[in-house]
Specification:
The chain is an alpha+beta fold. Helix content is about 25%, strand content about 30%. The protein has a five-stranded mixed β-barrel with strand order 2-4-5-7-6.
């Protein structure tokens, strides 16, 4: 084999190794980032399979269950008659909308201790997304003060000397 052929062979082998390495990194990255969305009742029925997967669990925060220590928060999620203790140890504090009876989504893993260990937490305020009550203003304007029209706005008078 000529010197030029050996060079092409080395280049081809290096290219194959790099492509295999990139494929492996992409595969492991996808495996690490994917999570399964389950309800609390589905989580309790999963058995040993629940301990090895990254999961997302949603529910309403049980009133009076929130215990905060800096960014570390412990609380209980409710879904109908099912309860789930959650231990959040993320790097960021929980969002401002994380309160009693708010809807929350915990992303993490289920431990053999029966506690869901969350690394990410999302919440939304239930009252903010509730349907509008009949007769309530839509833009924050009180009902007793109708919006002003152009004819009601006083224009400054111009005087000439």
């Amino acid at each position: 084999m000529s010197g030029q052929g050996k060079t092409y062979l080395k280049f081809g082998a290096a290219t194959v190794v790099i492509l295999l390495l990139l494929g492996y990194l992409a595969y492991t990255g996808v495996q690490d980032s994917k999570s399964y969305y389950v309800t609390i009742s589905e989580l309790h029925k999963m058995g040993d399979g629940a301990y090895s997967k990254r999961l997302r669990v949603a529910g309403n925060v049980q009133p009076g269950s929130i215990k905060r220590t800096g960014t570390h928060v412990q609380f209980v999620l409710m879904e109908q008659d099912q309860l789930l203790s959650v231990d959040y140890t993320g790097t960021e504090a929980p969002p401002d909308t994380f309160k009693d009876e708010s809807q929350a989504l915990a992303d993490g893993s289920f431990g053999r201790d029966g506690v869901f260990h969350a690394k990410q937490l999302q919440a939304k305020c239930a009252s903010k997304y509730a349907p509008q009550q009949p007769g309530a203003p839509t833009n924050g304007t009180p009902l007793s003060a109708p919006p002003k029209t152009m004819t009601q706005v006083q224009r400054p008078s111009v005087t000439s000397n």
